[in-house]
DNA sequence: GTACTTGTTGAACG
DNA sequence: TCGTTCAACAAGTA
């Protein structure tokens, strides 16, 4: 499940490899992933060049020539793989033997560039999508999502964070952190980790947070996301191709996915509970 | 067949 | 109208 750091990692990896490339062909075997018929989609993008790659929240934006853009969401299990004769990148990570078996049964979309290299979109559960928009259409689409600020830019200031919290006094802190209208890019993994960093239980109500805790939450969001990007994100076992190639941040996780294991700080057993249908993991001793 | 997975949305609640 | 909770959806795995 790529969250902000994973998507940022993919963006940086792709930037080095596909900027300037011309799209020679496109294929997609799952119509729900794209917002035009395959025939129309292909006709619109054929011959266009990739001019830039941007990220907004957990989405990637490929800026194409002639004012077209492809908005990509990987959802839980999506993966982008770039492959040429000499190299292969999976979600930002180079792998040695992955290209031989691509496309595979999880490959649902393929871009072929004029130099015969490829960009594959793999998705085990087919939740992800690649939608094509004009500049104007993209702007409208992004506006309609009412997204909050990017946590790693100055838009996400401490004042903004405090004010938003004031508006959501009765929210549980974990849910507040995961709400894209408040801050984008924080999913289940990083909300658990941020709560641990601030030593706050995920179920704590916003109105009961102490000023010191609010400060730690704010710092934690910035720090944990930045650290994760430095280590190229957290990768997962459901990325079949990258098996054995887990992102380095995986090793740094303090609570996420560690229920039943011992807390790295105090040795207490990490607990797992449900908050609004979602799993939350925390250390009952470290987090108050 | 069932429970579970996540990000996101929309319905329903007070 | 607003804040909040909950169910639903996408499709596959165990």
Helical residues, percent: 25-40%
Enumerate the spans where pLDDT stays under 50 for 5 or more consecutive residues: 95-100, 236-246
Order of helices and strands: HEHEEEEEEEEEHHHHHEE
Count of the domains:
2
- The beta-strand count equals 12
Figure out the total of helices: 7
Which shape, going by the Cα principal axes?
elongated
| CA-based gyration radius | 20 Å
Q: State the end-to-end distance.
A: 28 Å
Brief descriptors of the model:
288 residues; alpha+beta; 2 domains; six-stranded antiparallel beta sheet; 7 helices
Explain what this protein looks like in three dimensions.
This protein has 288 residues and is an alpha+beta fold. Helix content is 27%, strand content 23%. It has 7 helices and 12 strands. It is elongated and about 55 Å long. Mean pLDDT is 85; it is low at 95-100 and 236-246. The chain binds a DNA duplex (14 and 14 nucleotides) through residues 1, 3, 32, 58, 73, 75-77, 123-128, 145, 167-171, 175, 178, 180, 187-188, 238, 276-279.
List the helices and strands and how they pair.
Elements: H1 4-18, E1 23-28, H2 38-45, E2 50-56, E3 59-64, E4 68-73, E5 78-83, E6 88-90, E7 93-94, E8 107-113, E9 118-123, E10 129-134, H3 135-144, H4 158-167, H5 173-178, H6 188-197, H7 211-230, E11 271-275, E12 278-282
Antiparallel strand pairs: 1-8, 2-3, 3-4, 4-10, 5-6, 5-9, 6-7, 8-9, 11-12
Helix pairs in contact: 1-7, 6-7
This protein binds a DNA duplex (14 and 14 nucleotides) through residues 1, 3, 32, 58, 73, 75-77, 123-128, 145, 167-171, 175, 178, 180, 187-188, 238, 276-279.
